[in-house]
Amino acid sequence: MENVKQHEPIRNSLEQLGVGKTVLLGAQHTFTMFGATVLVPILTGLNVSVALFMAGVCTLIGHLIMKNRVPVFLGSSFAFIAPILAAVELAKANGIENGLPYAAGGIVVAGLIYVVVALLIYFFGVEKVVSFFPPIVTGPIIMVIGLKLAPTAISMASENWFLAIVAFLVVVVINIFAKGFFQIIPVIIGLIVGYLVAVVTGNVDFTPLSQAAWVGLPQFTIAKFDFQYIMVIAPVALATIVEHIGDVMAIGATVEDDFTKDPGLHRTMIADGTMTALSAFFGGPANTTYSENTGVLALTRVWDPLVMKIAAVFAIILGGVPKIAALISTIPGSVIGGISIVLFGMIASIGLRTVVEHQVDFTKSRNLIIAATILVLGLGGAVVPISIGLVNFSIEGMALAAIVGIILNKALPEAK
Q1: Rounded to whole angstroms, how far apart are CA atoms 62 and 74?
Q2: Which of 55, 66, 280, 378 is deepest in the core (most CB within 10 A)?
Q3: Taking a C-beta distance cutoff of 8 angstroms, is the pair 54, 284 a contact?
Q4: Which pLDDT tens digit goes with each residue over 164-196?
Q5: Which of 280, 238, 241 is closest to 87 using CA atoms?
Q6: pTM
Q7: How many domains does the chain divide into?
Q8: Is residue 384 part of a domain?
């Protein structure tokens, strides 16, 4: 392992690292996705154990759909938080105490919209779709993906800057100066060291651990379908589909591969959509390709999809063993925040690398306008409300930035 240099990516972890180290790498991805995956159910009222369990199951099935080619983890989507809360409030106004099953029904339909778009891509060709995403569009979009997460990292880190700095420095030092296998597990080492320091300094609350059971099946609930709630939730898919394309391109740029061609953008979208529908049908949140885990790919340069499958198995275990989930939940948010400063920054840096490697000419006014618009709309919190009859929804953030960037790229003429 000592002969593996930093610039050499690892695509077959079992062959190059062995079983033990590969499993540890999978555990690292589990730690990375845990905070964000459980945050969505915590904010919306969905069941945490169901979210973890379905994230694991959907990731494994999703890999089969994607021909075991894409190193991706399917975790809880933040894009659906506001619509879920809106559906719950609407249900209360209608005299329904628990509106979550109806919100889940809307998410199921949103996932099926992905499938429709995927079929259009399949029949009309990925080239026509990808032509809407040149480097001047994809580079800034990828930057937005990473930078949009920056406030989350800072917010978590600010809970205790001492712990955040400790975790941050451990990740940096391990990644730069460590040798051999330790160099590719900086996140998990940062978590362990940060957690131990938190325990010693009295910054860990063990209450959730003492109250949790060792074994317990997730509390699944079956989705309910009502057109009124479907129209509150499903239109969000119009925005998250664009986000999916950006994420797939970000992952491809990270691991130096083109997943829009193999296994094909239609397959990645079908996987994302059908797994979103499956998760929601049993009471879980919508899925999305996790940028947090993409950051780990960039940091470790271990690009074998197997490590994501191992992470998925750990997620399933966490969903069925409340005691383990409770233990991980005792990791202070500041520790995760300190590590996230590196991970989220890595994603933004990949976007910057995209425009540099493709030699995007920023002396051209059209390129400056496109990049500037994408960055400001994506990071500035712009929201465009849309009303179609009785249906009201909004397009915001990265999805809005991507849509406007695509339109500008097609509308603004190339300089002769």
Answers
A1: 8
A2: 55
A3: yes
A4: 999 999 988 988 887 766 766 677 788 889 999
A5: 280
A6: 0.68
A7: 1
A8: no
